[in-house]
Amino acid sequence: MTTDAGQQWDAAAYGQRFGFVAQLAEDLVGLLDPQPGERIVDLGCGTGTLAAQIASRGADVLGIDADPAMIDAARAAYPTLRFEVVSAYDFTADAPLDAVFSNAALHWMTRPEDVLRRVAAALRPGGRFVAEMGGGRNTELVSAAIRDALARRGIPPERQARPWYFPTPAEYATLLERHGFEVRALWHFERFTPLAPGDHALADWLTMFASPFTGDLTAEDRAAFHAEVEDATRHALYVDGRWHVDYRRLRFVAVRI
Ligand code: BEZ
Asked: How far is the CA of 134 from the centre of ligand 1 (A)?
């Protein structure tokens, strides 16, 4: 997806090395419980893996993502499904939706109320909003190491990029209620996640996901930056010969009143 920070991703690498993002959320599709014929939008669908799973249950799915490369990859992988380049901030439905689904996308949208306004307007009364995103204290070890490495480069916290939005359960439930949703269930849980095998896995994760912080660095300094983040987190995140990321998820089922 194209993020609020203007980041554009390498869709091929995302699909190949970060397939766990969709795999770990497969039970979210179970929570959505798509029914044959239901009209469902997958918001921030990325390369389309979960949209395809929703479609396999007989639902009529549209996957949207702001990043054209992601949509190209989704269309190539699932040519019979519908995918469109649309930002969550602009999305509208031509007829009321039965559900909106989203995995690992909402934390890239730093104006959550603008997104919730769109989702609420697109759903029919009784329609579901089922999603998972980074929740409060998500990636806090990695984030602290990033912030320290930036501070050592003379960029104080108040001038550092804020590309991610990781709300607490109370904060997000309040927003959902303010936008006309009844919160049926909400979970906030740790997901200490192994990355692909290999000593470069955390550096690869930083290249893929943390580029809003490193855009002004030279290629050489970026490598040094990644090494500093590795050094600062190795004691906690390099476990049993494998890099991990300290994810915390916020997952919810909300119904449009
Ligand atoms: C996440 O899925 O929680 C996430 C991914 C990349 C950067 C930050 C958070």
From this structure: 6
Domain ranges of the chain: 11-138+164-195+248-256
Which among 136, 183, 132, 101 has a CA at the least distance from the CA of 25? Answer: 132
CA pair distance 25, 206, nearest whole angstrom: 21
Top mutation candidate among 139, 166, 191 for ligand 1, by most atoms within 8 Å of CB: 139
Query: In the structure, which protein residues have their CB atom closer than 6 angstroms to any atom of ligand 1?
Result: 104, 107, 134, 138-139, 164, 209, 247
Give the whole-angstrom CA distance, residue 215 versus residue 213. 6
Beta partners for residue 188, in sequence order:
250
Ligand 1 atom 4, closest CA? 134
Mean pLDDT by 10 residues, the chain (257 residues): 69 79 88 98 97 98 97 97 97 97 97 98 98 98 98 94 97 98 98 96 95 92 97 98 98 98
In this structure, whether the domain defined by 11-138+164-195+248-256 belongs to CATH 3.40.50.150 is answered with: yes
164: nearest Cα among 145, 188, 139, 182: 139
Residue 140 CB coordination number (10 Å): 12
